[in-house]
Amino acid sequence: MSAAIELRGVEKRFGDIAIIRNINLSVAKGERHALIGPNGAGKSTTFNLISGYMAPSSGSVLLDGEVISGLRPYQINRRGLSRSFQVTNVFANMSVWENLRCAVLWSTGQRYAFWKNIDNLPEVRERTAQILADISLTARRDVPAGLLTYAEQRALEIGITVAGRADVILLDEPTAGMSHAETERAVALIRRLTEGRTLLIVEHDMSVVFGLADRISVLVYGQIIASGTPEEIRGNPKVREAYLGEEAA
Amino acid sequence: MSEIASSAAPALPAAAEKLKFYGLWLAAAVALLLLPMIFTSGGSMTTFSLIGISIIFSLSYNILLGQTGMLSFGHAVYYGLGGFLVIHAINIIGANKLPIPLPLVPLIGALAGLFFAALLGWVSTQRSGTAFAMISLGVAELIASSALILRTFFGGEAGISANRTKLLKLFGWNFGPQIQIYYLVAAWMLIAVIAMYALTRTPLGRMCNAVRDNPERVQFVGYNPHVVRYLAFCFSGFFAGIAGGLAAINFEIANSAYLGTVQSGTVLFATYIGGVGFFIGPIVGAIFVTFLSLGLSDLTPVWQLYFGLIFIAVVVFAPGGITGLLMMHRPLLKAGTLTQMLPSYLIALVPTLAMIAGLILSIETIVHYTVNPGEDSHIKAFGVSFDAASPYVWAMAAVLLIGGFLVARKTWTLVGHAWDGATSVAREKGIAA
Fold this sequence. Notes:
The complex is a heterodimer.
Chain A: E1 5-14, E2 17-27, E3 32-36, H1 43-51, E4 58-63, E5 66-67, H2 73-78, E6 81-83, H3 96-105, H4 122-134, H5 150-163, E7 168-172, H6 180-193, E8 198-202, H7 206-212, E9 215-220, E10 223-228, H8 230-235, H9 237-248
Parallel strand pairs in A: 3-8, 3-9, 6-7, 7-8
Antiparallel strand pairs in A: 1-2, 1-4, 4-5, 9-10
Helix pairs in contact in A: 3-4, 3-5, 4-5, 5-6
Chain B: H1 3-8, H2 15-38, H3 42-68, H4 76-96, H5 106-124, H6 129-149, H7 151-154, E1 160-161, H8 178-200, H9 203-213, H10 215-219, H11 225-251, E2 253-254, H12 261-274, H13 281-299, H14 303-317, H15 321-328, H16 330-335, H17 338-371, E3 378-381, E4 384-387, H18 391-428
Antiparallel strand pairs in B: 1-2, 3-4
Helix pairs in contact in B: 2-8, 3-8, 3-11, 3-12, 3-13, 4-5, 4-11, 5-11, 8-11, 9-11, 12-13, 17-18
């Protein structure tokens, strides 16, 4: 069986500077995989390469065994890969409801329809309502997304990401800047919404990483230095030296 | 759907609300029908026809600006080409006695607008923002200058004229009298407005809003923002073509001014002043600007200067336009605190009007001395005669302008305080301000 996501010898250079140096990574179907590493290691760049926001300088990215590197973000999204952003990236002037509905439209086959009344699409309505209830923003349904609190915007960000029912979900630091209680709620939400799907998550909070992930990969200076189960990573001396040791010190 | 989920969705409109909604359109149709019976003069028929055309054009422009976030400096291209094609169509239909009545001819303008938008839009809609604005300006200049070069099609400086009455008669109407043209414009306007409103309530319409807010994120929910912008552009061209076609029928002529930057600027102006944030905004703007341009040009020779000043004032002080200003008051109306605002508004109005009067007096005096200094200094502007050479007038202008400004500034802080009070009451009552 092919992996959900596979990176083969992926490199990304900006001019002479290599940000990503030869990444090989495989995430199995249904796996919750965390990508950790110090600031500037290239975690967000890796996400950008997988989701089509950038094209790799060399190497290839595969989704379910098919090469997706070089495709545009919307083409990759239509193949069942959806990502969130580290900095909240929502439709600020539109209500929470409209935000989620826009995220549902393509996956229900509406395409660019200009002959259908948007309020007369039961499937769209049902699924939007479901996501809205899932992320617990029902009470804020008609509020413009730009006026939500930070934690609410992060929840909406996750909601938009999963709304299209992609099989592969990429979350970029979903709990960044949250309080302890908010983080716990966000992790429970992520666990629930990614049930039965493949998850690749970038996260700084080690308690989140070790609590959520089936497998962990450690990225340092644009290279994966270790991949394994949480126990293996915790016991890996190279990781301790390069990353975890720093944290402990 | 689970219980929780179904309660999360907004309620579908009840039968009563639907009735109210359709009643509104019906009321608009009846009002358009009865308007000529209240205002019977030929002049008002002409004015209403111009307003109707301007409403279609402004709404078509707002598909770009307000709904998809594209600032175009060349929207008149599609209006103008629609107009030219309609003029040619009338001539061809008339000459060949084709069985096509005049009321169907605006459709040719629409198809022309759609065709050229589809042709010219693919490249320009690759990007929004500055790149789109610059390309739209370039295309506009290109087409406008070709209009003077390609004489056989555009007719050079004189333009191309046609006789609209030579077409197949429908119910005995030859569309010679202005009132028949008014009804033609009114019918097309109603159809176009309903169609454009319906467009906002479709999947494409909502994705246009999403592209306006955040084109980057749109790509990650499966949509190509370029295609969304391109389709919006095509629709916008289609409706602009209807407006241009109706204008051509109304004036029985199409010339290079139809395509020019002034026309493109005017539609931007009307749409923005009306307010881009609401569907009704451009309608309000089209009415306001048409009245203003017809009225102001009788009152003062430098009416375009006042146009510019109004535009700047709206951009700086009311970026939501007239509609935005009015809609700001809706929460207060609901909370019943609108009356709290009235005293401070009235107080602020007096010095503000004084300031504006001083400004007008200064402008007219300066215009007299710069444009025609040799002529009689007794001038008339806005229906008021005064002596531009008199030191008393100068002093009065200065006092009104400076004094008015100083006092007005104080009274506007008063308005601000009253506003804070009124909105906080509204917020306490649970009405979002």
